[in-house]
Write a structure and sequence with these properties.
The protein is an alpha+beta fold. It has helices spanning 2-38, 40-62, 81-86, 175-180, 205-210, 224-237, and strands at 68-71, 74-77, 90-96, 101-107, 129-131, 139-141, 144-147, 152-156, 183-188, 192-204, 252-259, 262-270. The protein is globular, with a radius of gyration of 25 Å.
Length: 272
């Protein structure tokens, strides 16, 4: 009699453990499903970006270096033809090695509308990297521009928890990170441009109300004095000092992302 009771108790204990195991597995699977649902925009953005990178690289392999196809406004790099077919607002590709920042860039009349649109024109909170409407990218190749670029090319991007787009731009708060990732590559439709970081800073809302200098208002320098004012202020506001310097008529690229009480900006000067 006692053995039967023991066997029954063991059977009940086994069934109980099995039920608990099923519950745990069920909760785990449910958690995965919920996570996938909540992060579907992030997953979609990653997949779409990887597809675009693969397309660009495949074409790069098939073409000779500096191979171009004619375009009515200049010489468009062949590798960018498919991306232009997908999105007529496409203007270039930005890469910062080792950061995951490796994305297409678009331009339009109002950069804000691209902050919730994917490169494919669908709603997506990650948005797309977009040039400020007041910046001039320029067309053609350096030394033979059809339209010359402005002094400062400003690119906006989001920094959600997904880490996509400018999600890692805030890592430039430290000099160590800057030194390791100081080189920024921006391929326009026409040429490859290389920059090095010269300044990184927070532009707080309360400071903007009291300070006449606002980095995002300086896309052009009409004089050497205006350039010097821009240059002095980005060095003054910078969190740290770099060994990079600039001179009048140099070109800059500014990567900026919104923060809780203002903006964060990383500014680099063109090297070639």
């Amino acid at each position: 009699m006692s053995e039967r009771i023991v066997r029954q108790d063991c059977k009940l204990a086994y069934q109980k453990r099995r039920h608990i195991c099923y519950i745990v597995i069920g909760i785990f699977i449910l958690g995965i499903i919920i996570s996938l649902f909540m992060n579907k925009e992030d997953l979609l953005t990653r997949k779409q970006t990887l597809d675009l990178i693969q397309t660009k690289r495949q074409i790069e392999k098939r073409q000779m270096e500096n191979s171009f196809e004619k375009d009515e406004v200049g010489e468009v790099q062949s590798k960018f033809r498919p991306l232009l077919n997908v999105n007529e607002n496409f203007v270039g590709w930005i890469t910062i090695d080792g950061t995951g920042m490796d994305y297409p860039v678009v331009a339009g009349a109002d950069y804000r509308r691209f902050q919730t649109l994917s490169f494919f024109g669908e709603y997506n909170e990650n948005g797309t990297l977009v040039v400020d409407e007041h910046s001039a990218i320029g067309s053609g190749i350096k030394g033979n521009y059809n339209r010359a670029p402005g002094m400062n090319l400003i690119i906006h991007g989001n920094n959600r928890k997904s880490g996509l787009m400018f999600g890692r731009l805030l890592d430039f708060q430290t000099l160590d990170f800057c030194e390791e990732h100081k080189n920024i590559s921006f391929d326009t439709l026409y040429e490859k441009r290389e920059y090095q970081v010269i300044s990184a800073f927070f532009d707080r809302d309360e400071e903007r109300e009291m300070d006449s200098f606002q980095f995002d208002k300086y896309c052009y320098a009409k004089s050497e004095e205006e350039f010097q004012y821009f240059y002095d202020n980005i060095l003054k506001k910078s969190i740290y000092k770099t060994n990079v310097t600039a001179k009048y008529k140099d070109e800059f690229i500014t990567l900026t992302t919104p923060v809780k009480d203002g903006k964060f900006a990383v500014i680099a000067v063109r090297q070639k």
